[in-house]
Specification:
mainly alpha, elongated
Length: about 120
């Protein structure tokens, strides 16, 4: 549960001190600590849904940084694979689509729409 929570904290740019304070206040494995983690995880998931565009922008930045790291080694990458990597960075359809949607409760068809958007 901590790993999920930490990933959300980092992607939602939660203050490092707030993260440390929460962890310091909830160190044991008592039922109340487990409940506190469950509540914090639920709060962060709700916050993620409220700020979906910000969340997507942060994740997109992470992905772009990873792509840039891969592209730095492009001399060792065959041309066809390099072109595939570059084509990813040119597709902003998902980002535009996601920011135009309401994410109060994600629908089951979201994954289908994303999967079939490029067809």
């Amino acid at each position: 549960m901590y790993d999920q929570l930490e990933a959300l904290w980092r992607r939602m740019v939660v203050d490092e001190e707030a993260m440390c304070d929460f962890v310091a206040a909830n160190r044991r494995t008592t039922p109340s600590v487990v409940h506190a983690y469950e509540e914090e995880l639920e709060r962060m998931i709700d916050l993620k849904h409220e700020r979906m565009c910000e969340f997507i922008a942060n994740v997109r930045t992470e992905i772009e940084n990873l792509w840039e790291g891969l592209l730095e080694n492009h001399a060792r990458t065959p041309t066809s694979q390099l072109e595939l990597l570059l084509s990813f960075t040119n597709h902003s359809f998902f980002f535009r689509w996601a920011c135009s949607c309401s994410f109060s409760k994600p629908s089951a068809s979201v994954a289908y729409q994303i999967k079939h958007a490029q067809r």
